[in-house]
Amino acid sequence: MNPALLPEPCLLSMAVIPLGEDAAMIDELREYVFKKAYWDVYWPLFEDICLPTRRDDYGVLRGLWSISLGDEVRFIHLWRYSSLNDRTQKRAELMKVDAWRNDFLPRAAPQITRQFLQVLNPVVDASCEALAGACYQHTYSCSPGGVGEVIEQLKAAKLVDHGGIVGIWTTEFSDPNQVIVISTSLAAPIDQTGKITEIFPRILKPIVVGK
Q1: For the purposes of burial, counting CB atoms within 10 Å of the CB of 181, is it exposed (0-12), middle (13-18) or buried (19 or more)?
Q2: What is the pTM of this model?
Q3: To which H or E segment does residue 141 belong?
Q4: Residue burial 87-110, b: 16+ Cβ < 10 Å; e: rest
Q5: Domain limits, the chain
Q6: Measured between alpha carbons, how far apart are the two ends of the chain, in Å?
Q7: Among 3.40.710.10, 3.40.50.720, 3.40.50.40, 3.30.70.100, what is the CATH number of 14-206?
Q8: Span 45-61, pLDDT tens digits
Q9: What is the pLDDT of residues 96-144, one digit of tens each?
């Protein structure tokens, strides 16, 4: 089955993550690069084996997107864990599942050209429905020590519904001076603070499973 794009964005919902038990919650942003022909092989494996095997038992799927550039396809997927330790434990448990270890991985891994991942800390959270309607990612590179100011300006922009902000994350690794924004607007939500060294926008195509 080929993924389809959502025709219209969903209504946004926002929650500021409270301190306390949920403060350690993390999101993992994974990005795989394919040649187009290999993507066409990989996607049915992901849809028919990966998702039914994982369900929400080994991390909760938050969103799926793709980017097509010529013969290259980038597949972006966002997973939620209660903590870094929870991620480590769940991934270890997943490796014990026969369908994952013996059926999915041996067939899926050879299709992938490159893989990247980031561990993110949600600052302004969003529903899965809102993320499914978001078509833009803005990556803010900040000067050392500047992330806090950028976050405060982004939260202020969200409160006045400026820039179509859906979710905001700080980066645990690989780059602690990055802020990730998922939005419904191509225009960067903020661009005036001196703490920003670069803004990297990307156009995302939301994927609908089963279409």
Answers
A1: buried
A2: 0.86
A3: strand 136-142
A4: beebeeebeeeeebeebbbeebee
A5: 14-206
A6: 7
A7: 3.30.70.100
A8: 999 999 999 999 999 99
A9: 999 999 999 999 999 999 999 999 999 999 899 999 999 999 999 999 9
